[in-house]
């Protein structure tokens, strides 16, 4: 029986793969045979991850890119096509979310939040289309969030707006690209234990949050990576235009 989670001979691009959720996604695909490209603003850290996984027998390489720059994204995708010749899975995981009270959000902050979290998704997907079309299929995955589409969080109005936009993109792009066998889906993480999560509160705050999660703990990056693997695999071949909530039950209604 074939392994539905075997990504041998598949090329996977993961943005924001140098740490946290992104690193877990990179590792998940790499350990299952995927040829993974990490695209990250922090090239030095991305190269550390690539080096460690390559030393362990995986196929991983790192490139630096500022995902707020549409021209840089175009260059990234053209270079990937020239060097590797194909792309099977595009994962836009990179995010920008400076915790800021609503009244303190500046034009520059809002513009970068929307550029990295939402606009980059358009340019990455457009850049992947020629490769997807040659192959007759493709998969776009996005790290969305429960914040925006389902819940609110103080200090993240700009982030919430970008993620609500991401979910709109997922549905509409999935509809437009379905006839070309290109699937578009996303994962909505809840509270995940990452370095970024640590910046939102101290240990006592985070422990209190964990106690209020129905499953009794914060999520881990591997929880999100597992959902991404499923959505990228042929197990989800009939799934498109959807987001999978991975939040330990946090958004379930209380009675």
Strands of the biggest beta sheet: in what spatial order? Answer: 3-2-1-4-5-6-7
Level-1 CATH class name = Alpha Beta
Task: Give the helix level as a range of percent.
Answer: 40-55%
Largest sheet: 7 strands, parallel
How would you sum up this structure, described in words?
It comes from Pseudomonas rhizophila. InterPro entries: KR_dom, NAD(P)-bd_dom_sf, Sc_DH/Rdtase_CS, SDR_fam. Residues 10-190 form the Ketoreductase domain. It holds the Pfam family adh_short_C2. By secondary structure, the chain is of the alpha/beta class. It has one domain: Rossmann fold, CATH 3.40.50.720. The chain has 8 helices and 7 strands; from the N terminus they run βαβαβαβαβαβαααβ. Strands 3-2-1-4-5-6-7 form a 7-stranded parallel β-sheet, sandwiched between helices.
Features:
single chain; 255 residues; alpha/beta; Rossmann fold; 45% helix; globular; SDR_fam
Concise overview:
The protein is an alpha/beta fold.
Task: Detail the topology: elements first, then pairings.
Layout: E1 11-15, H1 20-30, E2 35-40, H2 43-55, E3 59-64, H3 70-84, E4 89-92, H4 107-135, E5 138-143, H5 157-177, E6 182-189, H6 195-198, H7 203-212, H8 221-232, E7 242-246
């Amino acid at each position: 029986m074939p392994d539905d989670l075997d990504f041998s001979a598949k090329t996977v691009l993961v943005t924001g793969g140098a740490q946290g959720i992104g690193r877990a996604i990179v590792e998940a695909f790499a350990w299952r045979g995927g040829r993974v490209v990490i695209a990250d603003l922090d090239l030095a850290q991305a190269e550390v991850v690539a080096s460690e996984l390559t030393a362990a027998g995986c196929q991983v390489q790192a490139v630096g890119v500022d995902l707020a720059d549409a021209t840089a994204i175009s260059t990234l995708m053209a270079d990937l096509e020239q060097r590797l010749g194909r792309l099977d899975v595009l994962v836009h995981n990179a995010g920008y979310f400076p915790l800021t009270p609503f009244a303190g959000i500046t034009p520059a902050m809002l513009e970068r939040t929307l550029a990295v979290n939402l606009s980059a998704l358009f340019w990455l997907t457009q850049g992947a289309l020629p490769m997807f079309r040659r192959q007759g299929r493709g998969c776009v995955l996005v790290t969305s969030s429960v914040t925006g589409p389902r819940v609110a969080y103080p200090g993240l109005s700009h982030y919430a707006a970008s993620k609500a936009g991401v979910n709109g993109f997922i549905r509409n792009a999935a509809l437009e690209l379905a006839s070309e066998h290109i699937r578009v889906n996303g994962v909505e993480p809840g509270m995940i234990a990452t370095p970024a999560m640590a910046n939102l509160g101290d240990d006592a705050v985070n422990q209190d949050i964990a106690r209020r999660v129905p499953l009794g703990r914060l999520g881990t990056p591997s929880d999100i990576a597992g959902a991404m693997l499923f959505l990228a695999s042929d197990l989800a071949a009939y799934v498109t235009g959807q987001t999978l909530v991975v939040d330990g039950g946090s958004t379930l209604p209380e009675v």
